[in-house]
Amino acid sequence: MRPEAKYLQLYNSLTKQKEVFTPLTEGFVGMYVCGPTVYNHVHLGNCRTFLSFDLVYRYLQHLGYKVRYVRNITDAGHLENDTDSGEDRIAKKARLESIEPMEVVQRYTVDFHQVMAQFNALPPSIEPTATGHIIEQIELIHQILDAGYAYITNGSVYFDVVRFNQDQTYGKLSGRKLEDMIANTRELAAQSEKKNPQDFALWKKAEPKHIMRWPSPWSDGFPGWHLECTAMSTKYLGTQFDIHGGGMDLKFPHHECEIAQAEACNKISPVQFWMHANMLTLNGKKMAKSTGNHILPGELFSGDNNLMTQAISPAVAKFFMYQAHYRSILDFSNDALVASEKGFYRLMDAVSLIDNIEPGNHSDVDVSSWRQSCYDAMNDDFNSPILIAQLFEGAKYINTLADGTIQLTQEDLGLLGSTLKSFLFDVLGLTPPEDSNQKHDHLKRAMDLLIDLRKSARDNKDFATSDAIRDRLLEAGIQLKDGKDGTSFSLKNPNS
Ligand code: AMP
Ligand code: ZN
């Protein structure tokens, strides 16, 4: 273990404060993160949450922990509305496209893995699916029924929230009180099979047209959405584990229900640290599949979208996300991403210089204390924006070393280079650009020249030349976009 590991603090959404991180078993961490519902492409908002936990996973490993990271794939049971009603999201997509539900699952699971690989996110240690754990979910329902916290109606099984709340507390993660929830609901009990609107499905009997169904002691049906995460986290990480993560919007009801299910079975709080990542917004509103207010990673990388003036590489998009703390809201915008790209190349440029710098006979800056500031930032609840500010400070040292204004001993030079590289490449998981920054800069300058030549041709009404420039560039995979602020270009993704 690195000595810095003792000082890691993280914000626990359950206690609403930062706490020193001490795992249940020394040297080992069990972490569960709710994965995607694979009925559609993941949008950049989803990616932000998964990248936030990639950072957590990478940093814990960097500190020396052996981490078992479980992130599930939801391939059944997630209905259109989070309140046990509507069609299964995957079955609906299958119906609309006239394909099998498992074809939908396969398509979007592969897509999700490709996107995560483009972002250089590490795969989890175990990636279990809901449909692969029906037996475990049925077993869990038996346990909850035996404990007296569930009831059977018309072949469906519901969790009895009111009964549970008599013995334990429902709502402690989200800070909601059951009495208030009951007072604020207008649903007519007569229309529902539930004793109380707050109850949630553990098992639902399938209507004849519902194609995703499995046999159970209660009916041919399917498990409730919240159940899979309790079944899979308990199976792979035990009845108590260290970290459970997901997006902020999963706190209620999903995570609240997970806690209730686990406590109903085992009488102990299942998770030491609950972590919630905040939302990526677009035009000030949450990015979401359902509202259409989103941009897909592929659209960002190819430049094929109406929001950006240029294509953005996965590493730059990831860098942009890490320039905000994972618990802050982050708004997507062209200007912010273009600014991030500049910063990203500034850092990469500096890193590429370091191996050619000659050591001096003394050191003008205190590299050890700078390195300590990098760890302090990450140990303060994974504060990546502060870390990045420190990395810029490191880049500034390199630039002043390169121009001879300051010098460092061989040892300090080595420490500066290794610290910078390990935070950039191992902890943040950024990939150095395939084309060096120099190439990037040369391309930009050459394009500025072509854009100027095309403009003069147009000004002289030489449309044959201006069109030829545009068409030949397009053939070469470079698209010009004319806007009110002039002309910009984007590189077409060769795979799109
Ligand atoms: P889903 O596939 O809808 O179950 O969502 C997968 C993950 O993405 C969950 O952890 C969500 O909380 C998260 N998520 C959804 N929308 C956003 C967003 N706009 N920003 C950040 N995370 C999001
Ligand atoms: Zn979950």
What's the number of structural domains?
Answer: 3
Please indicate the percent range of residues in DSSP E strands (runs of 2 or more).
15-25%
The biggest beta sheet is recorded as: 4 strands, parallel
Q: List the strand order in the largest sheet.
A: 4-3-11-12
Based on CA atoms alone, the radius of gyration comes out at 26 Å
Overall pLDDT metric: 93
**Structural class determined from secondary elements:** alpha/beta
Tally of helical segments: 16
Helix content: 40-55%
Low-confidence stretches: none
Bound molecules: adenosine monophosphate, zinc ion
> What is the molecular shape?
globular
CATH-assigned fold name of the largest domain:
Rossmann fold
State the separation between the terminal residues, measured CA to CA: 44 Å
In CATH, the architecture of the largest domain is 3-Layer(aba) Sandwich
CATH superfamily of the largest domain: HUPs
Total number of beta strands: 17
- CATH top level of the largest domain is Alpha Beta
Describe this structure in words.
- The chain is α/β, with parallel strands linked by helices and 496 residues long.
- Helices cover 45% and strands 16% of the residues.
- The protein folds into three domains: 275 residues, Rossmann fold (3-Layer(aba) Sandwich), CATH 3.40.50.620; 147 residues, Anticodon-binding domain of a subclass of class I aminoacyl-tRNA synthetases (Four Helix Bundle (Hemerythrin (Met), subunit A), Up-down Bundle); 58 residues, no CATH class.
- It is built from 16 helices and 17 strands.
- β13 and β14 form a beta hairpin.
- α11 packs across α13, α12 packs antiparallel against α13 and α12 packs parallel to α14.
- The longest helix is centred in the C-terminal third of the chain and has 23 residues.
- It is globular and about 75 Å long.
- The protein binds adenosine monophosphate (AMP) and zinc ion.
- The site of zinc ion (ZN) has 3 residues, from loops.
